[in-house]
Amino acid sequence: MRGTYFEDVVVHSVQVSPAITVTETHVAMYLGLTRELPVGPVAVPDVLPLCLSIGLGWRIQDPPMAVLAFVGLDWQIVRPLRVGDTMHARSRILSKRPMRDGGFVLEERSIVDQHGEVVQQGKFTFLVAKRKEASP
Amino acid sequence: MTEHRRYFDEISLGEECESPGRTVTEADIVMFAGLSGDYNVLHTDAEFMKQSIFGERIAHGLLCLAIQSGLFSRASVPYATLAFAGLRWKFKAPVKIGDTIRLRAKVTAKKDLSKEDRGLVTLERTVLNQRDEVVQQGETDLIVEKRR
Prior knowledge:
The complex is a heterodimer.
Chain A: E1 14-16, E2 20-21, H1 24-34, H2 47-56, E3 67-77, E4 86-98, E5 103-112, E6 118-128
Chain B: E1 16-18, E2 22-23, H1 26-36, H2 41-44, H3 46-50, H4 61-75, E3 81-91, E4 100-112, E5 118-128, E6 134-145
Antiparallel strand pairs in B: 1-4, 2-4, 3-6, 4-5, 5-6
């Protein structure tokens, strides 16, 4: 597994992702995949920006963390996003805790729109691989 | 949008529901990788995953979170939801290709909000697989319209 290993995760480091414009296509694909009910003609289902933020996390400058598992999240929706809005993610490492196989990393993340307003925010817990577990 | 919806006043504290099952397929995982841009090897590299503790590719945690959100709307008459306020969630066990997941949900809190036309409904949600193992669990807060 490649990426930034647990040992190299820097507490308090900040990452800003590239941005993505949320389109009708994203919404249609999401609704088709999940069978969530539509919430209005230009509304973006609230879980979709969260899903897109994970993908954006793979497009940052540094190698993304070598995530073995997504352990949990605590998440707030501040305001809805609408079709045509452009979002990006801002994240900061809050703490890390070593375990025998890998370690837990607590990350604070905000999803920000084109006006610089936070639309969603919360905390993610990941289990991240240690360096010794590098490619088998 | 024309189907019947349940308003805040019609939702009872303690009520429970269970959704139909849904089998998570390889196609679901491939589509979700394409949609989200999350191509982590956990979800996309079958050869690498043969050597892992899981033995095969696993579904994205957020894919199953999104699927249970859709299953909730099939578990009972949909709520007159105005907004999704937040969630506290744990991913407890992997979901593999071919696993069938379903949702069990229970209303654990109802609260009035400062705006009089709406209230907050907290649901405890458990996502189970075909062996009745808990794969995901958490709480979600929904803002639901009151009947005028």
